[in-house]
Amino acid sequence: MPTIAVFGATGAQGGSVVRQLLKNPNWKVRGITRNVNSASARKLAQQGVEVVSADANDPPSVTAAITGATAVFGITFFWDVAAAFGYERAASVEMQQLKNMAIALDDSPTLEHFIVSALPSPSRSSGGKHHAPHFDVKQDGVDWIRDNLPGLWAKTTEFWGGFYASNMVGLEALRFHEVPASKTRVLIAPSKPEGQLAFAADIHTNAGIVVEGILKAGRKAFGRIAVCVTDYRSWREVAEVYERVTGRPTVYLGVDDETYTKLYGDFGTEFRLQLRWSEEYPSWHEAAGREKIISLEELGVAGKLVGYDEAMEAMFKSGQFA
């Protein structure tokens, strides 16, 4: 039976891949995480996942974790790196992590398919006008694989996971805060109201469905990009959906870059770079290049994904919106 090794197995994307493929009797699932003793890792082990430890900063541990794997889902985490090493070093450290992973995979005699979690490049799509390190570095990593490891690149598929609906509860900066005097909720971001977000919506469900489709596509997916985006929504629409779902009066408030950085520090600076780019270049499909995309229809998953409205409704019903 083929084995898929999943980096970030306790995270949003990796966890989704693990859960989806656990339902597939044709795959053995190996979950890779830094801490095999965490509650999340122990839960995976109880569900039948082979849980192993690896740190992308430690090449030998990466090599050991992917040994014997037929397929690998690889992901790195800019925000975790930024928290550990600082924002100034985050991109270079993440780039090295991607290289460490790729070099180990290139040497694997059993690997048949590498699915790498990446993102569009604001710098490239805007002709250098915009840049956002947490986006650009992932595409820089893909370029490095293409240029330096052609054997690995020949069996690689990019997975682009759009904006998570769960960010609206998981990130302090994106929560709908209550104004005490009026009980109105306000959503604040450094973007025009008509600026758009490319939503993967329920990433905890959708990532796994798309990755399973990529694996089924096999060679047809090599060298192509699977864009996991269910909806393009403006900030105004994001607030309107929240109001409809919760019944709470809600407004969107766009602020300038300096104000947002004062509110949220380094995260605010990094995030506003992304949003100023997406105001002008909202389409991830255009950024990918239509000819490079393997569509959700080709993957056989169109109609199976959970969209933004449905994801927001589910979060409200489960009590996630305080």
UniProtKB/TrEMBL annotation:
- Annotated source species: Cercophora newfieldiana
- GO cellular component terms, A-Z: nucleus
Do the record's keywords include Metal-binding?
no
Keywords recorded for this protein, A-Z: NADP
NmrA-like domain boundaries: 3-282
Q: Which Pfam families match?
A: NmrA (PF05368)
- Recorded family membership: Belongs to the NmrA-type oxidoreductase family.
Q: Does the keyword Transcription apply?
A: no
| Protein name per its UniProtKB record | NmrA-like domain-containing protein
